[in-house]
Amino acid sequence: MTAPLVFDGIPLGQIRRSTLAGPPTGIDIATTLTLTVAARETVAVVGDEQSGVDLLGGLALGLETAPSGHVFTLGTEVAHLERRARLAFRRKLGYLPAGEGLMQNLTLRENIRLPLRFGSDFRPKEIEGRVDVILAQLRLSRVGDLRPAQATAEDRRRTALGRALAFDPELVILEDPFDGITERAAGELLEAARGGETAEGARRTVFLTGTDLPAVLRRRVDRQIRLARGQMETIR
Amino acid sequence: MIDFLAAIGRGTARWLARVGALARFGFEAFSSLPSLPGAGRRVAARVLLNQLRFTALEAVGLIVLLSTVLSYLTISSAIAQLDKVGASELIGQLMVVVIVRELGPLLTALAIVGRSGTAITAELATNTVLGEVRALEGMGIDPFHYLVLPRLFGCVVSVCTLMILFDVIAIGGGYLAAGVIGGMSGARYFSIVLAQLTTLDVVLTAIKGLIFGLVIGLIPSYEGLSVRRGPTEIPQAVIRGTVGSIAVIFVLAAIIVAVLRA
Alpha-carbon distance B238 to B234, whole Å? Predict the structure, then answer.
């Protein structure tokens, strides 16, 4: 079985962040990353801002392109796909970006509904049903009609995760998912991202990045890797 | 001397790079249109309707005010002078050439840049800074589909519609001045003005609406999405978007006149 996520010889210091308009930007580090995330595994990569850890989610989604090496996501080099195919491919993945990236002019419910309305042929009734289930699972039913600015940080994070799980993806990529929320909420979010347990392990593969991992969660991830001073160190 | 020339060269190269990036942005926006998914069309249509409400509907009052005041001032000043030399018939030409053909489209475009161009840049820059644009791309939603195209088409439709409204109100406002100050009858005023109005003027208004609408949709969107560093860059982007749009609109207005004269 193909590993859902493979980073093969990625020179993090040579990556230039692309933008929709304007020139790209980069960081100055000398880490070359090689990492394989197996199916149903939960892997956390942590490191400070200068470690390049914040580039990994973008690389997995093809939002960033490495000048050399390969990134295989569900067996596909996303960055090498044509723009339209790249966008369509990303709908197979779940993505929670750093800072949530919720649309501020939409309610929490509308934020979860957006990818389903834009990227699926489901009927409006089916979409509403699915959104209701996600809101209930993430305990957001009572705050669904609030805008992100009116909601708590915890509810915003739950909404961003709900949006990432809207298509029930096989692989979930989470950037800084537990930053600024309680350990209890972080545990709930991790369990929701994993999608429950089966005989073979978690239902989904989870790849998460961040500056640190709450102590209570260190035992609940399968592997934790730290990027520091150009080195990769497996903590657990 | 060499330093001076080098500075000019660097400035020109920067300007050309910006024009090139803007052209590529416009090309990418239009080339993304065929790939807008069926389901996405309904969502984009709702964003477009919102844009039409903000850009066209909510600007009607401002356009009516500008148009009435401009035509009243122009015609009331002119008719007093033209009457002295027995050339009051020329107000038809004045109305059509100066207001309907030139100032109407220009003032409408400037009003929309001031109202909606600034709002588009600020909104898209905020979307970018808050990571919303990256999140959209990460979810497989093309920001061109969700953010840029509805604003672009909203601006084109709004500017065309408001230009026509400006011209209609201006002709009515001109009658107010010609009738009240000049004592001209309504029948005579409208026969003079409508005799000067040709199909070319209507076509030209539509073409200008299309071109200026594209400028107001594209430049502010480009500047808004080019923000990278943080919130402090938003006002700078708004200034670049507004000044750039105004400059391009004036240059294009001059080019259109030059082409027509030729």
Answer: 6
**Alpha carbon of B96: minimum distance to chain A alpha carbons (Å):** 40
Q: Which ipTM score applies to this complex?
A: 0.89
A84: which chain B residues are within 8 Å (Cβ-Cβ)? Answer: 35, 142
Asked if residues A52 and A12 have their Cβ atoms less than 8 Å apart, the reply is yes
Q: Do A119 and B139 touch (CB under 8 A)?
A: yes
Among B39, B130, B135, the residue with its CB nearest the CB of A120 is B39
Say if CB A64 and CB A42 are below 8 A apart: no
- Give mean pLDDT, residues B104-125: 96
A21 → closest Cβ in B21, B137, B145: B21
**CB contact burial B58-91 (16+ within 10 A = b; e otherwise):** ebeeebbebbbebbbebbbebbeebeeeeebebb
Q: Are strands A32-37 and A205-210 parallel, antiparallel or unpaired?
A: unpaired
Q: A residues 96-115 near B, CB within 8 Å? A: 97-104, 114-115
CB contact under 8 A, B225 and A20: yes
Contacts of B219 in chain A (CB under 8 A): none
CA dihedral B244, B245, B246, B248 (to 10 degrees): 80
Among B39, B43, B27, CA closest to B150: B43
Q: Is pLDDT above 80 for B250?
A: yes
Q: Taking 60 as the threshold, does the pLDDT of residue A98 lie above it?
A: yes
What is the model's pTM? 0.88
Answer for the pair A16, A25: CB distance below 8 angstroms, yes or no. yes
Most confident of A106-115, A198-207, B169-178: A106-115
